[in-house]
Write a structure and sequence with these properties.
Elements (H helix, E strand, L loop, with lengths): L2 E4 L4 H12 L4 E4 L16 H16 L3 E10 L20 H11 L9 E11 L6 E11 L15 E3 L4 E2 L5 H7 L1 H19 L2
Parallel strand pairs: 1-2, 1-3
Antiparallel strand pairs: 3-4, 4-5, 5-6, 6-7
Helix pairs in contact: 4-5
Length: 201
């Protein structure tokens, strides 16, 4: 595979995919290269369902193999919220700062041991006239009381990775690209792509 279509307009996600696939010599394109394509409505109740909806819609439109990502943050104290609404938790404007601020307000005065959370990523690959496949990855952590770090995007500044002793936004890119939910899902996707190539799909 020399070229890969990623069904997202999120620049942060696009950059992560490019970094993660560059070592494989794969050229990554995204919906940023197709501004005429409107956002696909995410009507699923799980990350996997939303990833499938996006991948199949764009694959049908472009008649190409397409990988779609749906990911977000699930906080135990908030019964799994923001979940599939992570990108628009504070409203439809998809404002990272507003979303993060809302989470911190909802967790005000909640002790650290009850601030457990995980990032979840579902990756779906839709191939024209073929079965759609899904792989998933998670990264466990805790929600901090205030943002820390300048790297990353979304909820990274408030997601503390206990094993690393830092928030996602404080981690160097090479470390994040090994431990993140998306990195773990991509390892599984890479294995799946190899299996599909071997089987001639």
């Amino acid at each position: 595979m020399k070229e890969l279509m990623i069904a997202t307009k999120n620049k942060g996600k696009v950059n992560e995919f490019k970094e993660l696939f560059s070592s494989r010599g794969i050229n990554v394109k995204s919906l940023l290269d197709y501004p005429e394509i409107d956002d696909i409505e995410e009507t699923g109740s799980t990350f996997a369902e939303n990833a499938i909806i996006k991948a199949e819609a764009i694959s049908k439109l472009l008649k190409l193999p397409v990988i779609a990502d749906d990911s977000g943050l699930s906080i135990d104290y908030l019964d799994g919220r923001p979940g599939v609404y992570s990108a628009r938790y504070a409203g439809e404007q998809k404002n990272d700062l507003a979303n993060t601020a809302m989470v911190l307000v909802e967790l005000k005065d909640v002790p650290s041991e009850k601030r457990t959370a995980r990032f979840h990523c579902a990756l779906a690959i839709a191939i024209p006239e073929e079965k759609t496949y899904v792989v998933e990855g998670t990264c466990e952590g805790q929600i901090t009381e205030a943002p820390r770090g300048e790297n990353g995007f979304g909820y990274d500044p408030v997601f503390y990775v206990v094993e690393e002793g830092k928030t996602m936004a404080e981690l160097p890119k090479d470390v994040k690209n090994k431990i993140s939910h998306r990195a773990k899902a991509l390892v599984k996707m890479d294995k799946l792509l190899n299996e599909l190539e071997v089987s001639g799909k």
